[in-house]
From TrEMBL:
It comes from Tremblaya princeps. It comes from the Bacteria. Keywords: Ribonucleoprotein, Ribosomal protein, RNA-binding, rRNA-binding. This is Small ribosomal subunit protein bS20. SUPFAM superfamilies: Ribosomal protein S20 (SSF46992). GO terms for molecular function: rRNA binding; structural constituent of ribosome. One of its GO terms (cellular component) is ribonucleoprotein complex. The keyword RNA-binding applies. Binds directly to 16S ribosomal RNA. One of its GO terms (biological process) is translation.
């Protein structure tokens, strides 16, 4: 019984963490699409922090966390590089 209760408690915590990650990723993608440099930097910092927390708590695998962050940072870099004055 203890194992079942612990599993339910951890599943609830993991669901909350992953929901937070999904919201942060969604906000980051929206900021990237809108191409506002300040919003992009703020959203990327929030997204990276939420992914790091989810990884630290065990809700997200190390490679999955790195892959998600790398993809969004690369996407933001491409967008911000295109907007930079030549």
């Amino acid at each position: 019984m203890k194992r079942l209760h612990r599993a339910c408690r951890l599943a609830l915590r993991n669901r909350s963490l992953m929901s937070r990650v999904a919201a942060a990723v969604k906000d980051a993608r929206l900021a990237i699409r809108l191409r506002c440099r300040e919003d992009v930097m703020r959203a990327l910092a929030t997204m990276a922090r939420s992914i790091d927390v989810a990884h630290a708590k065990g809700a997200l695998h190390r490679n999955c966390a790195a892959r998600r962050k790398r993809a969004l940072f690369a996407n933001a870099a491409n967008v911000l590089r295109d907007d930079a004055p030549a």
